């Protein structure tokens, strides 16, 4: 009979999941850090700042009045994207530290998405929009949930690959 997937990865899978989650978390930190590094480099007359900002352009509108300014120029992404990125890092780090899937219910996705969807819809309808710090705070929970889902998916992939290598038949 096949092994069932538990909340804690077995043996080598535990080390593997922590390694994969750690690498992905480090990449997420670097990616998010780049949103701050871009304006800092630009403020210090480095051409790299402009190039780095272009890297974030496909994923964010970068409308200047919707970007946070930490004192050395506007971040490379808007406040909402910043909230999503920071929330995602927290979700990934939480999963990495626990080294167990969180398995958030889909209902939480709907609940956490509602404020961001309403803010987005208000902007599309020309209604007054939230301030940038509020927009960041509204996006944080959705980003956190996305990070938890990503962490869970990565754990599942690693556990299933480890089970296949050992000849077990994982059951989700």
What are the salient characteristics of this protein?
172 residues, mainly alpha, 5 helices, 67% helix, disordered N terminus
Structure description:
The chain has 172 residues and is mainly α. It has one domain (11-159). The protein is built from five helices and no strands. The longest helix has 34 residues, at 132-165. The protein is flat and about 55 Å long.
Q: Could you give the topology of this structure?
A:
Layout: H1 11-43, H2 47-56, H3 79-98, H4 106-124, H5 132-165
Helix pairs in contact: 1-2, 1-3, 1-5, 3-5, 4-5
Strand content: under 5%
**Helical run tally:** 5
Number of domains: 1
Distance between the termini: 14 Å
* Structural class by SSE content: mainly alpha
What does the radius of gyration come to?
Answer: 19 Å
Q: Topology as H/E string?
A: HHHHH
Q: Count every beta strand, where a strand is a DSSP E run of 2 or more residues.
A: 0
- Give a short account of the largest sheet: none
Mean pLDDT: 88
Instruction: Identify low-pLDDT runs.
Output: 1-6
Overall 3D form: flat
Which percent bin holds the helix content?
Answer: 55-70%
Summarize the structure.
With 172 residues, the protein is mainly α.
């Amino acid at each position: 009979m096949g092994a069932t997937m538990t909340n804690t990865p077995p043996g080598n899978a535990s080390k593997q999941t922590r390694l994969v989650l750690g690498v992905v978390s480090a990449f997420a930190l670097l990616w998010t850090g780049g949103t701050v590094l871009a304006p800092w480099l630009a403020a210090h007359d480095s051409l790299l700042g402009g190039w780095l900002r272009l890297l974030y352009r496909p994923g964010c509108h970068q409308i200047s009045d919707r970007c946070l300014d930490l004192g050395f120029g506007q971040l490379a992404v808007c406040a909402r994207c910043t909230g999503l990125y920071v929330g995602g890092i927290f979700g990934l780090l939480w999963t990495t530290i626990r080294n167990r899937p969180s398995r958030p219910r889909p209902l939480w996705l709907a609940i956490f998405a509602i404020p961001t969807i309403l803010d987005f819809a208000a902007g599309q309808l020309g209604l007054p929009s939230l301030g940038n710090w509020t927009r960041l705070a509204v996006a944080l929970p959705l980003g956190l949930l996305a990070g938890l889902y990503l962490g869970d998916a990565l754990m599942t992939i690693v556990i299933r690959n480890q089970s296949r290598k050992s000849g077990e038949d994982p059951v989700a």
